[in-house]
Specification:
Four copies of one chain form a homotetramer. Chain A folds into two domains: about 5-175 and about 360-370, Glycogen Phosphorylase B (Rossmann fold, 3-Layer(aba) Sandwich), CATH 3.40.50.2000; about 190-355, Glycogen Phosphorylase B (Rossmann fold, 3-Layer(aba) Sandwich), CATH 3.40.50. Chain A has helices spanning about 10-15, 20-25, 50-55, 75-95, 110-115, 135-145, 155-160, 175-185, 225-235, 255-265, 280-290, 305, 335-345, 360-370; strands spanning about 5-10, 30-40, 60-65, 100, 120-125, 150, 170, 200, 210-215, 240-245, 270-275, 290-295, 310-315, 325-330. In chain A, β9 (about 210-215), α9 and β10 form a beta-alpha-beta unit. Chain A is α/β, with parallel strands linked by helices. In chain A, strands 3-2-1-4-5-6-7 form a seven-stranded parallel beta sheet, sandwiched between helices. Chains in contact: A-B, A-C, A-D, B-C, B-D, C-D. The interface between A and B is large, with 54 and 54 residues.
Chain lengths: ~375, ~375, ~375, ~375
């Protein structure tokens, strides 16, 4: 009997963090993959990850519409409540042997709580890391609801064990996003024309260019607009082409969007192109050629460490996350940002750092899911 | 400015675990108490805690109907999802400075998640303990969502700190239920006639009698009926009067109820009286005079340790919970139960054990809530 | 291509009102039946219609847990809201060509609204009747959301047309419950021992006996307890064996249940047996031999008109419903009830009245569903 | 004792349809207004009606976030389900004597169902009209849930009575939006600069200009994008300045938005300015000076009939709605639209037609709400 593995993808970036594992599950003779796509991953406004997922050949077993409009802390809670009750019905229909939840976005609490309450063994991918924002609370709460932990780093494993989880249930698999980065690094010649989507003028990517990935910080969500404005002014002043990616759906993302729209209406954005989404490989190919990645995305810390791309991390969203030497931190004022980016461009490429994985996470995860002993009983180890 | 403290009570037993703290908050000049009563605490079928609460003089600021019929793991998840989205609206209206959540029932995930997502400082009462069932996952997940921890025992504090919480945010307050037990112990002459409610014949309580408090174990919820049947046969065979309390609303409680109904229809229950609920003091007065308390309730471990009442703990629901010398463990077969109860009756009363508090928890909690520094930012300490 | 017909059953009595049509659909070569069982039809407390349905050989395509505990007007609204959002997901998965909703219980608003909003042709069974309570509003609102109307009587058809529906979309099919009554009438020798379920003493059914079917009236829901008490005293005073059926889940049903429990604890119920549910045929076999049916159920007006059983209809719940000569009306005071029942017993059996159908409703409905032209566009005819 | 009147506003256009009545209620000595703002009326993306409402001096008693992202038929159903369960809690807290629901947007089913189920007298404003789309079903279903009907036209009253409502419960009040139109007509000199908001170049409004108000048709929602594209090409070809208003939130509105964005990126929109929202008066001042209003909004049929503004109504969304001589109908192809607009511009201004009211609706509605006899019992009149 194949194991039925329900994997819940709730956002565009989560897909990149699981894609190679999904492929390995699809190929595994003892696994039946049940892919559940939910929340912003279904919506065009957030880059319609579901379309990319189907184009990549995966069958979607269930779709869960749950994202409430409004993007305030209150709507985050309502969204998660709605997701929790819908997910209960989805799991009742799919009857999976294992549920897999990815990382630490707020709405993953719906997946984790539904699975735990329904006595389904829960696997948490990428627990044990440390950052700021609501993600920090969500990530460790999911650890406490989960039965098995597939982590990216040695330090993450150590933290989860210190939190009282059984060592025999914590596995270092690396992060599947590094698998894609490794493939991109192996084929630097592969390229991709990004300007078939997004808005703004076509940019010249044969020379140096910048990439911005900036998300609102939910615990300071009222500031999202100002934070984005500072970054917009900073990167414009550098005079290089800028590829800017729209934020995920979070409390505050409306503020970021407003800042971008305001800037587009009121300032010169000839050197900017704004994007919603790419397939993960294409995204990393573009990233792999840029001079510096700027913002507060974990991509700058993870994939870029492996690829050796200079990164400027703004503000406290990634505070506490382990990092390689490719990233430097800066507060959110435009002068500080400009200073840091110039420094990174001057430095140029860094050596590859396998901190978050060596490129075999997908197959390792699939093998574990097919064979790991399952239990829903657990207790603090101390 | 008074601090607005929203306390969410979702079940009859949770009320006993917070009552003296509510009184102390009501009396505190710097606290405005916002009492939210939800889930089974509103329902007659589960002893209508809300009626007791109002009779005790507390004003209910908001009522949240959220309990779905069915009592399966799936309906637990739907109930919690519904509660989460309703609680978001309640908190938006009340705008509390602090949210207080009690212990580890499944639906407390709704309170904790709503508070964390809405950037409201969350105080968790009675974290850091260890037991079986879904409660274990819920309790530690709430710890990870909470900003402040008011625990009952030294060991609980140590565990929470080991889980990575800041020591300065973990306070030993004792459990408010012990405050009531202390008051009952101070006045052994106070008494109460239980037979004005419940069903079954009036029993003679001037001699020895037994009390049963048995809940379904959610991770084995299909067995609830059989587990209850074993206990029913065991206590009937002892020939003493039995005061039996109906279970809370949990996955499996329908099975327990069915067992009781079946037994009532098919067997001799002349010596049984079945109850739904008492005010906490009355309940402890009755408990304080019984020969042995039987089942798997934490009352047998906590309040009864303080009162020195012999207790027989059945099955794995309380596994891992710290206990005094008053409690012995037994598997769920009727012969084992009978053996253990006889042994405890033969032993008789134990000395008082202040493991879960000395009787000052309520005022200590109120003082802390009025003055403790508040923050919603936290990070693993390692 | 077979037409996919989603039929939503939300309560025990609705199943009797559709059963023969379900059989005819299952047998029809051009129909794929998608049976959705929801709300109280899933719950043991309300007679677990889903178990009967499966025992009858139907496959359940989807189960929707939606019934909130509490049974107040507020929980009716929450239940229906929850049902609406769950039903949307169910219909998205089943992708039916037609949705069928039955009669006028409050939660059928969830089915009807979900179907209408999702552009699915909606068939309403048993519209056009007139009664009291919230059912009256629900029934006609569903008519306005429905695209096709399968009614029981000529007068119902006329009313729906007067409400502005296209005459070509209104079909007199009769009520499927009469199909079962006709089968029972054809085989008066078939019998059934009811005393394998329910609570109370076994009664002698070889002589005269009474049946009570009493529901709370939602627009007077606070009175439910008193109304039931009057009926309990009335029927007890008649000295005949009484078979009493527990009410459906409605605002107020908790009051009715409480009355019954109170009466059982406090009064002599030697002559009573209390039931939750029977399969529809068995129920009508028992009904077919009783001396008088008492209460406010539509069964007394419909099936009993066909079977010619004397009926006493209490209060205003059935006001306005067309009736045959078998039923007389009475207010809810015990003296009036006693007087009316005595009069009906004295009269004895009435001739069969085919007002609500002749016994061919099931096959007529299936034929129509397989062939009727479908459209979701409609407009008032005036 | 003042009557507490809960008015639920769920969208920007509904506010214009009730505003003068809200003012009259606020001024009425026997009315306590409880304003509930919900769904898209809370959201910036849809013109943030709540901000306008507060700027106009109204106090918002409760806010209900309920709008799900996605804008498909399925999310309409989920939104309404969520709204229904939230509205139940809102009404429980506000305890209104009357609930007022406006017109026929899909989510008004939540308001109407919650009020009916909770035994609250429901007043429906602007029933009895006839149009296409899901609005037609919603409007008449709400009529069947409502206890009192305040309609705009003689014909609407007649229709509601024919549907079986008591004539004594149906009142012709006129539409409050005409009150604003009458005020604008009385002061043609009052003006307003629209170009402080919206996107696109400033246009010259001293000469002829066009206004477009185009909504998706929910029963054809997949076509929304194409329909908008045709209109965009049509109006651009006319060479006049165009003020284009973004659509409400409906199944399909995402398609309309996409069309507009696509057109902005790919075509010349120098003559276009795109708006989200205006205060109702400002909106009518702009409308009052335009050469022709184009699209499928009811504003073109109602307010513009009173103001005598030439209107071109596209497609079937307003089919069946009573109209004055100012409006002509056209299919959705660009050539037909161009032909019709040219014809209307050539004709110029029409005489005022008081079909939907004379300008006293607001005060008439407030007087009725303060004094009309209340009942929640009703029955078909035939």
């Amino acid at each position: 009997m194949k194991r039925k593995i329900a994997v819940v993808v709730t956002a565009r970036p989560s897909y990149a963090r699981i894609k190679t594992a999904l492929s390995a599950m699809d190929d595994h003779p003892e696994i039946e993959l049940q892919l559940v796509v939910a929340a912003s991953a279904l919506l065009d406004r957030y880059g319609s990850a579901s379309t990319v997922i189907e184009k990549d050949g995966f069958r979607i077993a269930s779709r869960v519409f749950m994202l409430l409009e409004g993007e305030t802390p209150q709507t985050s809670a309502i969204t998660t409540g709605l997701g929790l009750l819908e997910m209960a019905t989805v799991f009742e229909n799919l009857k999976p042997d294992i549920v897999v939840t990815i990382a630490d976005r707020f709405e993953t609490m719906a997946t984790a709580t539904a699975a735990a309450f329904m006595n389904l063994p829960l696997v948490h991918i990428q627990g044990g890391e440390v950052t700021g924002s609501i993600d920090e609370k969500v990530r460790h709460a999911v650890t406490k609801l989960a039965d098995l932990h597939f982590v990216a780093t040695e330090k993450a494993r150590e933290r989860i064990i210190r939190m009282g989880e059984e060592p025999s249930r914590v596995f270092i698999t690396g992060c599947p996003s590094i698998d894609i980065a490794a493939e991109v690094a192996r084929h630097p010649e592969r390229t991709f024309d990004p300007f078939t989507s997004g808005v703004g003028a076509k940019q010249d990517l044969s020379g140096p260019y910048l990439i911005v990935l900036q998300h609102p910080v939910t615990t300071e969500y009222a500031l999202a607009r100002d934070q984005a404005i500072e970054t917009l002014y900073a990167v414009r002043s550098l005079g290089l082409p800028v590829l800017w990616f729209w934020p995920n759906s979070d409390a505050g993302s409306d503020g970021t969007s407003k800042a971008i729209r305001w800037f587009r209406e009121n300032d010169n954005t000839d050197k900017f192109h704004f994007f919603k989404n790419f397939p993960p490989e294409a995204f990393l190919q573009i990233l792999n050629r840029c001079s510096c990645v700027i913002g507060n995305s974990s991509v700058a810390i993870r994939e870029c460490a492996f690829l050796g791309i200079p990164a400027v991390n703004i503000g406290n969203r990634q505070d506490g996350r382990e990092r390689g030497c490719n990233a430097i931190d800066t507060p959110g004022e435009r002068e500080s940002i400009v200073f840091a980016v110039k420094k990174q461009i001057a430095h140029g490429r860094f050596p590859s750092d396998p901190l978050y994985g060596k490129g075999e996470a997908g197959s390792r995860i699939a093998s574990l899911l097919a064979s790991v002993p399952l239990s829903i009983e657990k207790r603090l180890t101390y």
